[in-house]
Structures are given as structure tokens and as C-alpha cells.
């Protein structure tokens, strides 16, 4: 009551970084058939959260303060593997690429939950602090299959591609323990789940012959993510 001035601040943070290192291998088994494979090591780091702060003062120079913070971090190291095959036939070139599901090697997670309230005459003070380190975490990424074709038309070529990813049912991405507080009861149960839907991408491209020294290229593709 009787607040004369208040200052409020809200901040949001969401950051995802993933780095891949890999090797690829390919071999021609016949004049018109070849196979290949790629193996990538992935380093995945996902973190985010939000913070709300409120400071207030009334006509009697009484100061009140509220702070609420939630943050998380998930790290995962694992393997992405791809296998492929290609055929070159008289009237069409065909290719298939299979993205195997993500194979997790190790993972870790963190979660922080804080809430403090002081100085509001009509509200009870709050002191809640939770900082969980090394909690169980899990990352999943689905199977994907891509099929492509190159169709020669005189000196030109039309390219077609379709790509499918399977779905992943709802799973627990971070296993967050029950919250505790010095002052509060009936704290919320925090769940951090993820569900990936099945998607289809498609592409169309063309190589257009103009002259012996000039070719034109154009393409379009969708880029939906699970």
C-alpha cells in the first residue's frame, strides 16, 4: 500500500550451442554404385532461465524487495552417425541417406530456483533457495531418412529430394528434484520435458545449361525441425 516509486526488471535468457567434429568415408563398389558413412562427435550445451526483480518504496521511506530466479543448464556428449548409398543409372541418379538416432555418451544437468520477498506489510516474507548440480539429464534426436534424385534432361538436370524424421514421445529432459523452502509449503513440482514431432522436408533444384562456360543453378527446400 501507498507505494510512491517502484522499479521492476525482467530478464530472459536462452542459449543453445552445439559443436560437431567428424570423419567421412566413401567407396565406389562398382562403376555406378557407391556407399559412404559419416561419424560425428557432438558437444551440446543448452542453458536458459528468467529473472524478475521488484524494488519499491512508500511514503514513509519503507523499502520492499522481491526477487525470483529460475535457470537451467544441460550438457550432452554423443555421436551422430550417417550412412548413405548412391546409384548412377542411365536416366537418373539416386541417393539415400540415413541419419541414425543420437547416441548419448554422457550428460549432466543443473537447475536453480530462488524466490525472496521482504518488506511488504501485507505479505509474508519468502526465502526459497534451491541449487541442484549434477542432476540426471537426457537428450534424444530421432531417426531420419533422405531420398534424392537427379534427372538429366538434355544438358540440364532436375534435382528432387524428400526427407523424413520420426517422432520422439514425451520424455524427461532434466530430472529436477522436489523444491525446498525455509518459509513456503506446497511448492510446485518442476518438470522439464520434451516431445519431438515427425516432420517431412522436401526440395527441388535445377542445373540449367546456358553455354559451355556458363551454368545456372537454382533450388528451394523446406527446413522444418522436429
Write down how many β-strands occur, each being a DSSP E stretch of 2 or more residues.
12
Number of helices: 0
The secondary structure category is mainly beta
Mean pLDDT: 95
What is the chain-wise order of helices and strands? Answer: EEEEEEEEEEEE
Low-confidence stretches: none
Strand content: over 45%
Could you give a short account of the major beta sheet? 10 strands, antiparallel
Approximately how much helix is present in the residues? under 10%
Radius of gyration over alpha carbons? 27 Å
Compute the separation of the termini in Å.
Answer: 49 Å
General shape: elongated
Tell me what you see in this structure:
The protein is mainly beta and 226 residues long. The chain contains no helices and twelve strands. The chain has strands at 3-30, 33-58, 63-88, 93-99, 103-118, 126-135, 144-153, 156-165, 168-174, 192-196, 199-211, 214-221. Strands 1, 2, 3, 4, 5, 6, 7, 8, 11 and 12 form a ten-stranded antiparallel beta sheet that branches. The protein has a two-stranded antiparallel sheet with strand order 9-10.
Amino acid at each position: 500500500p501507498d507505494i510512491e516509486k517502484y522499479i521492476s526488471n525482467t530478464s530472459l535468457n536462452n542459449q543453445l550451442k552445439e559443436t560437431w567434429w567428424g570423419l567421412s568415408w566413401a567407396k565406389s563398389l562398382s562403376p555406378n554404385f557407391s556407399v559412404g558413412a559419416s561419424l560425428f562427435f557432438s558437444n551440446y550445451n543448452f542453458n536458459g532461465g528468467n529473472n524478475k526483480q521488484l524494488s519499491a518504496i512508500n511514503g514513509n521511506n519503507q523499502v520492499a524487495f522481491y526477487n525470483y530466479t529460475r535457470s537451467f543448464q544441460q550438457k550432452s556428449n554423443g555421436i551422430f552417425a550417417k550412412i548413405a548409398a548412391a546409384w548412377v543409372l542411365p536416366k537418373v541418379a539416386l541417393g539415400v541417406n540415413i541419419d541414425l538416432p543420437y547416441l548419448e555418451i554422457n550428460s549432466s544437468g543443473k537447475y536453480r530456483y530462488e524466490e525472496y520477498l521482504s518488506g511488504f506489510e501485507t505479505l509474508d516474507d519468502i526465502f526459497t533457495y534451491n541449487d541442484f548440480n549434477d542432476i540426471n539429464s537426457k537428450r534424444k534426436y530421432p531417426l531420419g531418412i533422405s531420398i534424392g534424385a537427379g534427372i538429366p534432361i538434355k544438358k540440364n538436370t532436375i534435382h528432387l529430394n524428400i526427407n523424413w524424421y520420426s517422432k520422439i514421445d514425451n520424455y524427461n529432459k532434466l530430472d529436477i528434484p522436489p523444491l525446498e523452502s525455509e518459509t513456503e509449503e506446497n511448492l510446485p513440482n518442476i518438470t522439464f520435458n520434451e516431445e519431438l514431432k515427425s516432420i517431412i522436408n522436401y526440395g527441388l533444384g535445377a542445373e540449367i545449361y546456358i553455354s559451355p562456360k556458363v551454368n545456372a543453378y537454382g533450388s528451394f527446400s523446406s527446413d522444418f525441425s522436429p
